[in-house]
Amino acid sequence: MRTTTSSTLGRRQFLTLAAVTTTLTACGAPTTSTPADQADSSGGGDDVTVATYIPPSYKDLYGAFTLLMDTARDASGGSMTFEMFDSGTLLAADQLVPGLTRGVCDLALQTSSYVSTSYPVLGCYELPFINDGTDQTLRALTIDGDLFNLINEQLATKGLRLLGSMPTAPEYVWTMDKPVLAPEDLKGLRIRTAGNVEGETVKALGGSPISMSSAELYEALERGTIDGMISYPGTVISRDLQNVLKYGTAGHFGLYSVDIYSRLDWWEDLSDDEKSALNEGAKAYQTEGTAAQLKVHADDYFPAMKAAGMEIVELDGQQEQVFRDATSDVVDWWKAKMGDDELAQQALDLVQNA
Fold first, then answer.
1. What are the φ/ψ torsions at residue 24 (nearest 5 degrees)?
2. Nearest to residue 213, comparing CAs of 35, 324, 340, 94?
3. What is the pLDDT of residues 207-263, one digit of tens each?
4. pLDDT over threshold 80, residue 6
């Protein structure tokens, strides 16, 4: 297999990226149309172009990306090859899915928090304290399971296909000046968020959500532009934030996933063998990738935080219940975003009963 990481665009990607940039600038919204010069981008023959904004410094996640491609390559007998563009070299975080729908890449590796604003069904497992955490969410998101199929039914109406999801560890609240032990400790604090579910959670706790990319976090914290952030633990070490943050409040303040997306028409044009190979890759990505992520956190990331002088605050049952109560209305807010109470409850049941 030819699996490469590159910041050099081919002619096809360059021409289409130019069209995407023009479209995004003009209307600020993704489109599911496929330009005529992209008609040959589906299926076999060419490398499968993979894009993500995530850099290799996220070693808790990056191994799963390689595992996806290597497993699919082997399952295809070497007929599927991949070209990887990481670190936003092809598409920035907010352009990944719009760019995917325009044919700039074939697969987008994207965190659900960036996508659930446009596709709210994904928010069903991002909600605070919605279930027991990563293991339960992993079971809920099993490939070809009921929630996976429900999500794909919704994404299909927008021309997208979800191939697989890797849930992260639950999100903590991270701060610089004082630990967060109760909702009132967040009152007035400017907290970075990466999606609308996180933003609503921060507002429910009395904080002010500030949206920015993870690449901007170090400077924003160092300058005092923000007072903290809500994120999974991997962001701290992967962005060297242990050098500016002081406290982490452990809790299930949210939980997102890192997903594999393709265009629906691209997926449907694949041969059965190619689909089978990508399914094998996605399954390894989901199960082995999630396990590897959590191992990196336990073995490397949390020890590195401690060595840097950070304090991880564990909430007792009573303290956690106060946070649960304070954020309970976020579920109703999300249901309203869904616009279909029955569908929303069906998704929640699948998340909570897995």
1. -65, -40
2. 94
3. 999 999 899 999 999 999 999 999 999 999 999 999 999 999 999 999 999 999 999
4. no
CA distance 315 to 334: 25
* Single-letter amino acid, residue 227: D
Q: What average pLDDT does the segment 49-57 reach?
A: 96
Token pair in block for residue 159? 């021309």
Structure tokens at 50: 């993979």
Place of tokens 């390894």: 284
Mean pLDDT of 141-150: 98
Which structural domains are found in the chain, ordered by start? 3-168+256-298 (3.40.190.170), 172-254+310-352 (3.40.190.170)
Among candidate residues 25, 16, 177, 158, the one with its CA nearest the CA of residue 99? 16
For CA atoms 124, 126, 130, 134, give the dihedral sign.
Answer: positive
Q: Are the C-beta atoms of 148 and 141 separated by less than 8 Å?
A: yes
pLDDT for the residue 75? 98
Rounded to the nearest integer, the mean pLDDT of the chain is 89
Q: Provide the sign of the torsion angle of the four alpha carbons 217, 222, 227, 232, taken in this order.
A: positive
- Name the β-bridge partners of 107: 50
pLDDT at 72: 98
Quick one: which of 96, 56, 284, 278 has its CA closest to 194? 96
Give the predicted TM-score (pTM) of the model.
Answer: 0.86
Give the angle subtended at the CA of 264 by the CAs of 258 and 269, to the nearest 5°: 125
Strands (DSSP E) along 18-111, which ranges?
A: 48-52, 82-85, 107-111
DSSP element (H, E) containing 351: helix 341-352
Residue with tokens 């999974």: 232
pLDDT (0 to 100) of residue 46: 74
Asked if 81 and 1 touch (Cβ cutoff 8 Å), the reply is yes
Q: Tell me the pLDDT tens digit for each residue of 334-343.
A: 999 999 999 9
Buried b (16+ CB within 10 A) or exposed e, 259-283: bbbbbbbbbeebeeebeebbbbbbb
